[in-house]
Design brief:
single chain; 210 residues; alpha+beta; 2 domains; five-stranded antiparallel beta sheet; four-stranded antiparallel beta sheet; rod-shaped
Length: 210
């Protein structure tokens, strides 16, 4: 029969001289047999193991579906082409909770972004801008071309088109950002935001202006 026992009941035994010789562990074991129900202890330990395994399994499941959004900028100067992509390199789907283009850190619609780019590039520009709504998703390994820009060489002076290309490239890298708040299927929240790399800053000579 299990007999509840407090720490005070064990105090005389713990301070006993048995603890100062080789009988310490044997004394404690005898006390446990006399005052505790070993089967209850085993049941509690088993319950603890089950809870711990459930926690570890859930944690593993969350990590196994965690998305990670990053970007890639494809620049082909020979073709006067710039392509900006967002790629999900994580392990699961990214569910979009907010999607915002920024121009000089101010939120801007995709329509206004197009106007900004065309004001720099002038006429004869092939431009495509993608916008995503709340609830849209980016699957694992999926890549989406968010902005693509090309200046066709036909009907334009080559030097002029190259200058326009460089001007667009510089203003896009300096002023345009994309902010995406997203979450996993377990509602783990993350944010992606475009950042200018040190390589881009040095190459374009705009590092000191940011």
């Amino acid at each position: 029969m299990w007999k509840p026992v407090g720490l005070e009941a064990l105090t005389p035994f713990i301070s006993n001289t048995n603890l100062r010789n080789g009988m310490a562990m044997e004394t404690i074991f005898i006390l446990m047999q006399e005052h505790l129900d070993v089967r209850a202890i085993i049941a509690l330990l088993a319950l603890f193991v089950v809870i711990q395994q459930g926690y570890s399994s859930r944690k593993h499941n969350k990590l196994s579906v965690l998305p990670y959004l990053c970007d890639h900028l494809d620049r082909r100067q020979h073709d006067r082409y710039i392509c900006f992509k967002v790629i999900n390199k994580g392990l699961g789907t990214a569910k979009i909770s907010s999607f915002t283009y920024l121009w000089d850190e101010i939120p801007i619609s995709s329509t206004n972004l197009e106007e900004k780019i065309r004001s720099v590039a002038g006429k004869g520009l092939r431009l495509n801008i993608v916008s995503m709504g709340i609830g849209n998703a980016i699957a694992k390994d999926e890549e989406i071309i968010m902005v693509s820009i090309q200046i066709p060489p036909e009907g334009h002076d080559q030097d002029d088109s190259e200058d326009r290309y460089k001007a667009i490239q510089k203003v896009i890298l300096k002023s345009c950002r994309l902010s995406i708040h997203y979450e996993s299927l377990y509602q783990q929240k993350s944010q992606y935001i475009t950042k200018l790399t040190a390589f881009d800053s040095e190459e374009l000579g705009i590092g000191n202006e940011l």
